[in-house]
Design a protein that fits this description.
The chain is an alpha/beta fold. It has 6 helices and 7 strands. The chain has one domain: Spore Coat Polysaccharide Biosynthesis Protein SpsA, Chain A (Alpha-Beta Complex), CATH 3.90.550.10.
């Protein structure tokens, strides 16, 4: 409800997860010496299912759209892995910045007004975090959830900010610092939420184990 007592118009929101097809030997390569190729692929599949479940829970709460942008694999394969509750789209070709830019462009072109993109590596991005991130986009153009390795595990926008996805040293520990530098330089209103931890190394596996054991995804038949 707004200040006049009338129901506020619903804002079109979209939650997107970027997912690489979890094939043996192609995902979580830094964990292969510890888990083996099959074990690393299984971990990626399990985390993708888990994170997608929390994303769907947030989407249901907000009456938002939920999409999976996949790199490799077919729509049918992704549907079998994650269920048919999502809109499936192939990722664009190019480096991460290009792929993020295209996903934001497509979402805004479809009428979405607040868009979040997450990866399939951070199991602590549960529904509450996603909802808080969407709330921040009511007042700010950009929201970011930093990752402990110097990158970020969530980026959201309420308008396209292309310079934030260009000239970034992807895959390094400078991603977050460079992103904040651009936001400050261009005087773009933004919010940084609490730092989370991706699961990339053997030391990170405790994050996944704690999330999986203590925070099961809510069941929903809708």
């Amino acid at each position: 409800m707004n200040k006049t007592g009338q129901e506020s118009p619903r804002v079109n929101e979209r939650l997107i997860m970027f997912l690489k097809n979890p094939l043996e030997g192609k995902v979580k390569t830094r964990l292969i010496p510890h888990l083996g190729a099959a074990g690393a692929a299984t971990l990626q599949r399990e985390m993708a299912i888990y994170i997608a479940g929390w994303m769907r829970a947030a989407a249901l709460c907000r009456v938002a759209r939920a999409s999976i942008y996949h790199a490799g694999g077919s729509r049918a394969e992704m549907g079998r892995l994650l269920g048919e509750h999502f809109d499936f789209q192939p990722q664009a070709e190019g480096h991460l910045g290009v792929r993020l830019l295209r996903a934001f462009e497509e979402s805004f072109a479809r009428g979405d007004e607040r868009v979040l993109i997450i990866g399939a590596d951070c199991p602590t991005l549960r529904a509450g975090v996603l909802i808080r991130a969407l709330d921040h986009l009511a007042e700010r153009d950009v929201v970011i959830v930093p990752a402990s390795d110097g990158g970020y595990c969530l980026i959201g926008m309420r308008r396209l900010v292309p310079q934030l996805l260009e000239g970034i040293p992807w895959g390094t520990g400078e991603v977050l610092a460079k992103s904040v530098e651009i936001l400050k330089r261009d005087d773009i209103p933004y919010a940084l939420l609490e730092t989370h931890r991706d699961v990339d190394t053997p030391e990170d596996l405790m994050v996944w184990q704690e999330a999986y054991e203590n925070y099961p995804v809510p069941k929903s038949n809708s």
